[in-house]
Structures are given as structure tokens and as C-alpha cells.
Specification:
The structure is a single chain. By secondary structure, the protein is mainly α. The protein has one domain. The chain has nine helices and no strands. The protein starts with 5 loop residues before the first helix and ends with a helix.
């Protein structure tokens, strides 16, 4: 059922577009930084997505996080609780880019750019040691939102079957993110220099899928599909 008020319809489209944008950025960022670093600097892989901060993909990495942060901060959910947590998640996303990971824990970066540990380079980035905490906070908040808040309808349900399917996707994505966070912690406790690129990538992909589903790019209501024809 389409909204009767044209302004309501415009607002719905705007929010769906915002959600899709967050999801698309989340899906593309890990791919772009990995491919870009290999193309420009012949770095075949990296120990984490955050380590690409110290490559030519730094602007893409930080810019993507800043865009996600702004989108999340502008996002408005059906309750004040949703707005609060998306604002905090947005601040965490920006902080991930501004508070970089420690370069000494990424041997591939040091092998390619040993100068990052010199005084001249070491002073030219934000405070170190906080990165892992804002990353954990971001994914924990997003996991909470996808499992417990995305499953709460923000508008009247017009297609119960699709709504149930979307809720299953939200819960699955949230669980995947939690599992990836735990896996990262286990890996780092065993060896802090070990690669966590793939657990991070899977978590970010789950984040992207959740937001693309929330934006109805995935599992769109049948009446929306019919209206688009």
C-alpha cells in the first residue's frame, strides 16, 4: 500500500536510498582497498582492512567510514532508542578512520613501507591504541540494531511474508557479525600479528547486506515491485 501523502512517499524513498547507500559502501570498501593496494603498490594481501590506512588506499578507507558515519548520524529510526544507537554507531565509524590501527602489528605494511615507524611519519596520524575498541563498539552496536531493532517494523506491514524473510536476514547478519568479532578476538589473543582480514570482511559484508535489506534492495515488498513495473 503506497503512502497517501506525497511527502510521506518522498521521505520513505529518501530513507530507503540512505539505507542502500550505507549497504553499498560497506560491501565495496573492503574490495576496493584490497584491489587498489595490489594494483598501485603490489601488496598482495593485508593483515586487516584497517591496515590499508597505511597504503595509497587510505583516503578510500577513511572516506568510506566517514560517509557511513554521516549517513548513520543522519538516519532516523522509529524510536529515540534507534536514533541514539545509530548516532553512536556513526561516531564509532568516523572514529575507526580517525584513530588508526598500530602499524607495527602489520608486517606486510612494514615490509613495504618501513618508514611508517620513523618519527616523521609516526606523529602524522591520530592517537594509537584506541582503534580496536571503537571497531568492537561499532560492530556490537550494529549487531544489536540488526537483531533487535531492524526486526521492529518502522511502517505498516504490507507484505508479511517478505517482512518475515527480511527479519531472518537481519538476525542472520547480526549473528554473523557477533561471530566474526569473537573470532577476531580469539585470533588476536593467540597472535596479535595474525591476519584478521577475512573475519573483518565477512562482518562488513554482513553489515552491508543488512542495510541493503533494510533499504529494500533485497527482499523488496511485492507491492513495491509491482509499482516499479
Amino acid at each position: 500500500m503506497a503512502p497517501k501523502n506525497p511527502l510521506d512517499a518522498e521521505l520513505i524513498v529518501s530513507y530507503l536510498t540512505l539505507r542502500k547507500a550505507v549497504g553499498i559502501i560497506g560491501l565495496l570498501m573492503p574490495i576496493i582497498v584490497r584491489v587498489g593496494a595490489y594494483y598501485f603498490e603490489k601488496i598482495p594481501s593485508n593483515t586487516s582492512i584497517s591496515a590499508y590506512y597505511y597504503t595509497s588506499m587510505r583516503d578510500v578507507f577513511v572516506g568510506s567510514l566517514a560517509a557511513i558515519g554521516v549517513f548513520l548520524f543522519c538516519y532516523r529510526g522509529p524510536s529515540k532508542q534507534d536514533n541514539f544507537w545509530t548516532n553512536v554507531a556513526g561516531a564509532c565509524a568516523v572514529a575507526i578512520g580517525l584513530l588508526p590501527t598500530e602499524p607495527e602489528y602489520h608486517p606486510l605494511i612494514l615490509a613495504k613501507f618501513p618508514q611508517v615507524l620513523t618519527d616523521a611519519c609516526y606523529r602524522n596520524h591520530g592517537p594509537l591504541g584506541l582503534h580496536i575498541y571503537v571497531v568492537a563498539a561499532f560492530f556490537l552496536i550494529i549487531s544489536y540494531l540488526t537483531i533487535f531493532r531492524f526486526t521492529k517494523p518502522s511502517q505498516p506491514v504490507t507484505d508479511p511474508a517478505r517482512t518475515r524473510s527480511r527479519n531472518q536476514v537481519y538476525i542472520a547478519c547480526g549473528i554473523v557479525m557477533v561471530i566474526c568479532i569473537v573470532l577476531v578476538v580469539v585470533i588476536k589473543l593467540r597472535d596479535f600479528t595474525a591476519s584478521i582480514f577475512w573475519p573483518e570482511t565477512v562482518a562488513i559484508f554482513a553489515f552491508g547486506v543488512a542495510w541493503l535489506t533494510k533499504g529494500h534492495l533485497i527482499l523488496k515488498d511485492r507491492d513495491e515491485q509491482n509499482g516499479a513495473k
